[in-house]
Structure formats: C-alpha cells, structure tokens
C-alpha cells in the first residue's frame, strides 16, 4: 500500500519583524537602489547562477529585516515575475528574487544546487527576515518551489504554486508551510491542482486554491495579490468543486490520452487533425454548460503543450519531416502563440530557408515573444544574427519584455 501523504501545514505568517542588521544595499561594489528591478545579479560562490532582484522602496534606512519571495519560472525568466508583480513588493514590503537559472528539465541535483546558491547568496547580501522566507513558481517552477520548502533547509513559511501541483516525492510528513495553488480555468494542469487542493483539505491541511480566467501562464497581478494575502494569513473565498466538472473528469482524462496517442500515430494526417481540432472547438462553442466549455478549452491547451514538445524535440533531433507535422498541428491548435512561429523559424533554418525563418521570427515577435536570452543564444540563428531583419526582431522582443 502506498504511503499515505501526511502533511501538516502550519501558518507562520508574520509579514516582517524588526531587526538590527545594518543596512546592506551594496553588492560587490555596485550600489543597489530600492524601487529598481535588477535583471541579472550573480551568486558570489557560483557566478554561473543568477537572479533578478527588486528591493521594496522602504528597504533603505528602515532598520528592519524584510520577508523575501523566491520566484522560479519554467524557462529561466526570473525577471518576468519580478517585473510583473513589483508593485506588490512595495505594498507588502517584501524583497522579490527571480531565478534566472532554474528551468524545466533540469536534473534534481542541479535544480537543488541553483535553489541553494540563490537563497544563501540573498541571505548573505540583504537584510532578510529568516522567519518569513517564501517561494513561488510557475509550471515546473511551481514544483521546484515546493521541493525547496520540502527540503527543510531554508525554513520556508509558504509556497505559491502557479499552474502545477506538487513534485513527485514520497514523504511530505512534518513540513510546516502553507500552500496556495493558482491556476487558469483553461490550463491543462487545472484538474491536477483541483485534485491536490481537494486531497490536502481532506486531510485537514493548510491549502488554498485560486482560479482565474485564463490559460497556462503566470496569473494576473490582482490574482497574485490575493495569493499573497492568503500566504500572509488573510481570508479569501474558498474554492468550491463544481459537480458538473466532477462528472466530466473521466471524459477529459480519456480524451487527453486519446489525443496523446494520436499525435504519435503515423496514420493520423493533417486532414484528421484539422477535423479533430475543429470538432473540439465547435464542442466548446456549443457546450451545454460552462464546465463542458472549459473542458474543451483545456483539451486545446493540452494539445498545444503536447505539439510544442514534439515539435521542439523533432527540431533538436534534426527530424524535419516529423517537425513539419507537429508544427502544423501546433499552429492549428494555438495560432496566436508566439512559440509556434519561433519553432517554425528554427525549422526553416534547419531546412535551409533563411528568408522564411526571419519572417517567422518577425511573426513570433508580433505575437509577443519576449525571451531575449533564448533568441540570442539559439544555435539555429547563428548565421542570421548580423542581418538587419534579426536585429529588428531583437528590438521588438526587448520591447515585448518591457510591456
């Protein structure tokens, strides 16, 4: 019989406590000003590990220690949540730190090392209230955030897990932190978070779930504000299970498995996929209930994620024919996703069509692509970096980041 999850979530939620540390706002010769987002600071003991930082405006001369939240994104975009939510750092008086090194697909030992170096570096450099250290993460980063708390080495008081649930570990016993899950109602991981929250509450543990109208992404500012309020002991409306949703769960899981199997089938060509995706879209429009409409939206979101993974893998493995198929499915199911056209740009470089590749990069930027580091370091674009078209795309991507 599998181990029963025994989780004891205890609130330790003082926002901040006075301290007598000296005011530390200098970082290796560089003055760090409160109220400014620093995109890239390096860990002293390992300069390959970096993070984004925002010190609340009241940091200087306050004579106290401050709570801190460490953000872990799925794609090393530590600056994204720090910039997105920085006004909340001022409102609550919290230091925000976003890892620029943590990403999906890392070995556990590497991920744990990144977490350790980052937390320890920040604790040494800034006035941290060590009784009020929190983590937050998006997608795979949400699992990193929970795992950091489960390690027991950092006295994590609470976790905000966005768009993903708990990591695959065997024993949660004796951990003392509050878990706040946040997920979009069209997110392919929606049911996972509903189940996690239900399981934790069944055993009487301190867990909460917030749902917003959206897909797989960092939540809107106002939703993250509510999550912070819960994290620090505030009250909120409880998530209520939808009985119609419960009835549709098995259907959703079965359909997801069918779609996952279909994308691997050599017998399913684009005519089949065009018909299938259109059928799901039509079912969403004609749904008899909101729960059914959202279920179909999540199926499309699931197919977007799966086709991205297969297309990316095919391109990296130099399999242009397979990549062509997966990219066609990806574009059909999620035509406004900038990653569709970023991958198509890689595909066209792979197949020797430079002009088409640059056109796809332009389209990706037009749809909001905002990962400058990935764009500039991508091996596929080495031969086009010095072109005027690529420089134009880079300018657009930088502007997208600032939006």
Word description of this protein:
This protein has two domains: 206 residues, Alpha/Beta hydrolase fold, catalytic domain (Rossmann fold), CATH 3.40.50; 160 residues, Serine Threonine Protein Phosphatase 5, Tetratricopeptide repeat (Alpha Horseshoe). Helix content is 48%, strand content 16%. It has 13 helices and ten strands. The protein has an eight-stranded mixed β-sheet, sandwiched between helices. The chain has a two-stranded antiparallel ribbon with strand order 1-2. A hairpin with a 2-residue loop joins strand 1 and strand 2. Helix 6 packs parallel to helix 8.
Instruction: Using the alpha-carbon principal axes, give the shape.
Output: globular
Low-confidence stretches: 1-22
Order of helices and strands: EEEEEHEHEHEEHEHHHHHHHHH
CATH fold label of the largest domain:
Rossmann fold
Total of DSSP H or I helical runs spanning 4+ residues:
13
| Topology, number of strands | 10
Sheet with most strands: 8 strands, mixed
CATH architecture of the largest domain: 3-Layer(aba) Sandwich
Radius of gyration: 22 Å
Tell me briefly what this model is:
Helix 7 (270-285) runs parallel beside helix 9 and helix 11 (354-366) packs parallel to helix 13 (388-402). Helices cover 48% and strands 16% of the residues. The protein has helices spanning 79-92, 108-125, 140-150, 190-202, 221-231, 243-264, 270-285, 290-316, 320-333, 338-350, 354-366, 372-377, 388-402; strands spanning 26-27, 30-31, 37-43, 46-54, 66-72, 95-99, 128-138, 156-162, 178-184, 207-212.
